[in-house]
Specification:
The protein is mainly α and 123 residues long. The chain has one domain. It contains 5 helices and 2 strands. Helix 1 packs parallel to helix 3 and helix 2 crosses helix 3.
Length: 123
């Protein structure tokens, strides 16, 4: 079984000097979500790779109306795998994605002062 970070060929994630590259915070979240769900046994990695390769091929076959964005295709492949396995419905995915897209910038970040007060160790 291939490990998520061993993806090669057309489905390989963007890298710079061997390190994964994320242009925006949501990209790293999408990547982490897929890896976490895979590690939890939600789907097999070959199933995800096949879905990702299919999404990339579909983008290439289209007139490329939208610019190439690896992590948009990654997220779409994750949605495909989860919907195919009936883990979640397509409607649930769409609703959740719309909810997340409407969150204000910085919503996921905690105030450092509040965060630090909950730890017993010095920083």
């Amino acid at each position: 079984m291939s490990a998520p970070l061993d993806i090669a060929g057309p489905a390989a994630p963007p890298r710079s000097n061997g390190e994964l590259v994320f242009a925006e915070p949501w990209e790293s979240r999408a990547f982490g979500m897929a890896v976490t769900l895979y590690e939890a046994g939600a789907f097999t990695w070959p199933d995800f790779q096949a879905a990702l390769i299919a999404r990339i091929a579909a983008w290439e076959a289209s007139a490329a109306d939208e610019p190439y964005n690896y992590y948009r295709l990654w997220l779409a492949a994750l949605e495909d795998v989860l919907a195919d396995m009936r883990t979640v419905s397509t409607g649930e995915i769409t609703t959740r994605a719309q909810d997340l897209a409407q969150r204000p910038p910085g919503h996921d970040h905690h105030d450092h002062h509040d965060h630090d007060e909950h730890h017993d160790h010095p920083h």
